């Protein structure tokens, strides 16, 4: 016996977190669901470590928590930065994050406008 | 796939409930979704409590209760429209997972998880939600993206991962026999000693495996009971404080050697009696295993019969973290530093934009 029912529960939480990540449109909630998936992974690691009588699982779970904390910090900063531009947390509003460059279509190269005359290219953001 | 049959119904009910709840936000639909999710949990709970599969042992009522809290909070987090409620049910799910961690003897991990997630991350997220969405709810929170495909993907993910867990089989148990010369010294027959030998072999096999693979270990202390002169135990220092035993490393080795010669059964009793803790390797343990040379072949041949060994010592975890796993800890610290710098840099242009 190497695996337990707790692993099965962790799998269900992980997959439900994945469904939540796919289904919800609110970017904050998407990050929360990603955190939930990481938490399910931590539970699996701790359970495996317990079953093997080894600290390795717990150590790896602590590293997962560190990564999750970093991810949360960066995700919140990006969410806030994007919110200030679009005033919404709807992820579908951020599907076009590319930049439009004036003259790109005419000459076929990016930053083409004003390149010949030495002027600074005018860039308008798609958002 | 045969071994998945008992679980398929519960998993399917779970995702059916989630799909119905996502598709229609009316009260009767949400009620039906709740009923389906509850039925799924009861289904899975009965199977998990009874140890339906050979590979899945039965769960205790505490484990089932906390799993229920975690799972139902996860479903509520997914189905509820308001982001604030979702964040709060995330905290509840973390509490359920925390109890499951405690049941896996990961007390430090439980404390760290609850403090970091429920105490810091959720509060930060709530701040952001409350600052950004002061009305509390927005139309897009009630419009799921591709619920059918997402639920189908979730179902397939669950089934495929659960298949790996459920289809796992026991390794065949080895045939064990005590050393003949040791039996001559023992007052008991081979049959009566067999369970004791198995337990002792399990313990020593794990010690030898740990030494061979250079896994992290706690201090393996040699402990001697002065009153009964009953030999050795492999344990941590904390364990030694719990047991009223006097120990002296140099003396112990001598005593152990004498005890091996003297009474095989007493040695087995001593080894089998106390759970094993891992940590940093000790020279004495290696020497002791060398002294056990005549039994080493027999012990190495034994397989792990049960995995319920103790890894509950937070002190041992700390020693593992700052001993064998020191480099990953340094890496994690570096990652945190980078994330801090990165969040400052990424947040700066936004602040400038605000100023403009």
Task: Give a structural overview.
- The complex is a heterodimer of chains A (127) and B (356).
- Chain A has 127 residues and is mainly α.
- Chain A contains 4 helices and 2 strands, in the order H-H-H-E-H-E.
- Chain A has 2 domains: 5-95, Helix Hairpins (Orthogonal Bundle), CATH 1.10.287; 96-127, no CATH class.
- Chain A has a two-stranded antiparallel sheet.
- The model of chain A is unreliable at 111-127 (pLDDT under 50).
- Chain B has 356 residues and is mainly alpha-helical.
- Chain B folds into 3 domains: 2-166, Up-down Bundle (Four Helix Bundle (Hemerythrin (Met), subunit A)), CATH 1.20.120.1200; 180-301, no CATH class; 325-355.
- Chain B contains 15 helices and 2 strands.
- A two-stranded antiparallel sheet of chain B has the order 1-2.
- Chain B is globular.
Q: Structural class of the secondary structure composition of chain A? A: mainly alpha
Report the sheet-strand fraction of chain A.
under 5%
Molecular shape of chain A: elongated
Q: What CATH architecture label of the largest domain in chain A applies? A: Orthogonal Bundle
Blueprint (SSEs and pairs):
The complex is a heterodimer of chains A (127) and B (356).
Chain A: H1 5-23, H2 27-52, H3 56-86, E1 99-101, H4 104-107, E2 123-125
Antiparallel strand pairs in A: 1-2
Helix pairs in contact in A: 1-2, 2-3
Chain B: H1 5-23, H2 27-50, H3 61-79, H4 83-103, H5 107-132, H6 147-166, H7 180-185, H8 190-213, E1 221-222, E2 234-235, H9 237-242, H10 249-262, H11 264-273, H12 283-291, H13 293-301, H14 314-321, H15 326-355
Antiparallel strand pairs in B: 1-2
Helix pairs in contact in B: 1-2, 1-6, 2-3, 3-4, 4-5, 8-11, 8-13
